[in-house]
């Protein structure tokens, strides 16, 4: 049984998510703020954290960053704010997905399932050593990419996205295809998750950033 930590300072939100998660067969633990979540994660292991951003004492971004320092637990961030800056910053600190309030509980459950399944798959994918392509050296063990002598660490999601492009180089990929493969779910309405994550990934590819080409009206293509 997968274990989920739900972190939110709103009791109604915790109750809502807990009910749906327990119906899906997840074991649920709750926390009221970021500091409590950090303490719990030091003592217990989880398959996923669902965490609000705006909380008293320690906000979600700070809590996520601190937790990632000692445990690699996937995080889905909840927020009433849906700005591009918030989402980009979330991905930078290691957030795996981002859901804007108000949200559909069924959509959230789909994303929870997808992130948990994907995180379990990611571990088995890191067995191929060093991958050299288009001037990049990708370390699949250390989750780093080296370009022109500069090494950048990749988040698990950035690594999965980059390897999906590498394994499908020369092929035009739609946003829905990328969402389905890398995040594990189909698009729910207007979702720019792919665009934001690619923007972050490009920033780590240096002179190779143009290997990921935008195909207007369709999606993206990886060319070397």
Automatic annotation (TrEMBL):
Matches recorded under InterPro entries: CheY-like_superfamily (IPR011006), OmpR/PhoB-type_DNA-bd (IPR001867), Sig_transdc_resp-reg_receiver (IPR001789), WalR-like (IPR039420), WH-like_DNA-bd_sf (IPR036388)
Domain Response regulatory: 3-116
DNA-binding region: 128-224
Pfam families attached to this UniProt entry: Response_reg, Trans_reg_C
Superkingdom in the source lineage: Bacteria
Transmembrane segments: none
GO cellular component, one term: protein-DNA complex
GO BP terms: regulation of DNA-templated transcription
GO molecular-function terms, A-Z: phosphorelay response regulator activity; transcription cis-regulatory region binding
Signal peptide range: none
Modified residues (4-aspartylphosphate): 52
Span of domain OmpR/PhoB-type: 128-224
Keywords: DNA-binding, Phosphoprotein, Transcription, Transcription regulation, Two-component regulatory system
Function: May play the central regulatory role in sporulation. It may be an element of the effector pathway responsible for the activation of sporulation genes in response to nutritional stress. Spo0A may act in concert with spo0H (a sigma factor) to control the expression of some genes that are critical to the sporulation process.
Name of the protein in question: Stage 0 sporulation protein A homolog
